[in-house]
Amino acid sequence: MDPTRTQYQSKDLPTSRALHVSVTSAEVTAMCAKHKCTISAIEALASGGTRVVMMNGDDAAVIRKAYGKKVLSGPVTRTRWLQT
User: How far is CA 3 from CA 11, 53, 65, in A?
Assistant: First the structure.
């Protein structure tokens, strides 16, 4: 195995730090804590589910594998960010 890659990374595809899952933000936060993965940003999706950005690709790969079929593919509707 290439020493610069983890067991979760594909040889051919770079791992994105962002992923969309069909669970609540609280569930994502709990899963990340369970796997000791650090969240960079998290938001509820207007179309349902949660968008989470991990601090690194390795953490994203761990969470992506943990959620399996709950990872959303295709377009999602994000909530517009408003500065308060």
Answer: 12, 24, 20
